[in-house]
Amino acid sequence: MAMAQILSWLRLDNVGKIFPSTSSKRDTGVFRLTCELDELVQPEQLQEALDKTLEQFPHFLYIMRSGFFWYYLEASELRPTVHVENKGVCAPLFHRNRHTLLFDVSYYENRIHLEVYHALADGTGAMQFYTCLLCRYIAAVDGGVDGTLADQIAPSPITARAEDGFRKYYRRVKNRHVEPSFRAYHFAGTKSEDLIITEGRMPCHEVLSLAKAHGTTLTVFLCALLLFAVYEDMQRFHQKRPVVLTVPVNLRSYFPSDTARNFFGNIRIAYRFGDETPTFEEVIHALDDAFKRELTEERLNERISRFTALERNPIAKAAPLLLKNFVLRIARRISDAGETMVVSNVGIVKLPEAVLQHVKHMSVFTGTSRQQICICTCGDVLSIAFSSKFVNQEIQCRLFRRLAELGVAVEISSNLPN
Prior knowledge:
The chain is an alpha+beta fold. Helix content is 36%, strand content 24%. The chain has helices spanning 3-6, 18-22, 43-56, 123-141, 149-153, 158-161, 165-169, 204-213, 218-233, 280-294, 297-312, 314-318, 321-337, 353-356, 394-405; strands spanning 9-11, 30-37, 63-66, 71-74, 83-84, 103-108, 111-117, 191-203, 243-250, 264-271, 341-349, 359-366, 371-378, 381-390, 411-414. The strands form 3 sheets. Strands 10-9-11-13-14-8-15 form a 7-stranded mixed β-sheet, with helices on both faces. It has a 5-stranded mixed β-sheet with strand order 5-6-7-2-12, covered by helices on one side. Helix 9 (218-233) packs across helix 10 (280-294). The longest helix is centred in the N-terminal third of the chain and has 19 residues, at 123-141. The radius of gyration is 21 Å and the shape is globular. Residues 1-5 have low confidence and may be disordered.
């Protein structure tokens, strides 16, 4: 039975409530998953694959509505049509004065793009939808691929994929850890009207070997390289200001859930360089300690409880949506003041071998008003994609140059005009 037949509307999850109030043309709240295949895309087969995938994920067909107290999702009769890519990366999908679907599937030559408004799903949930779509598409164009592979990727009931993980795991926490607040280092420079994408693709095993040689994880290793790239770009009088990386964490790894909606929490990793340049090992050691300290079930549970408690506060619940919008925008600005950039590692994209043979690589990009990195691995191809509004690309160049100096074969592409 389709979800639309079960529920006519859905509450936005805890994280999802933030995006309709804070999205804008400059910061769209949209992210893109893209895959390059070994052959040109066949539109009819892609449409067929999309229609079948939506039977597994019917809550993707919901539209955003505004109530007196909160935005919410409502079942709709709208159906998407795949189309040739005809707009910029991560262009707006949510329009306050129009009722439209909150995702879009497009293609260009041998690439398939899925763009999702963040109020609908997070990266993990959208990737679940996307991998099912790819499995169905590859099965449609290659008769030798099992058409049931998509069912194996998302075997859980439809209701489980639409559940609110925050409500499921909320519990009151009395003694909460008080997180320090920082005025973080911020980038400066000329901004572009369009989102600038700069992506580096490289063999994952080469970077993973370097990380293991330093006794750390791939994420910590790349964060350390990024910190040094930022440090080398900082003016001296800014070097005492902390560089703060916001790192989204997939909560499904700590609290079992099959939801395809938002279920992530952010941790913040701060590093102060000061007057003397630290060694690379010192930075890795500091980051390792910070990640281990933050990535515990207890600390993550505190985050779930803190934000859900705010949502459940009687005064907050009674406030009209107009006031909530105003407060959430102010809260977003305060939060942004304590952040240098976002580093989001979607992780390893798991595809059946028969499907993976048709995939050259996968990438993730996100809309932002400043600068953000998305990391993902498919097969042995590691993608590090910068989304930026800044014309200056020095941070990107320094990071990729350092990887190349360490012996990593990096292939770089960008939409930056020559």
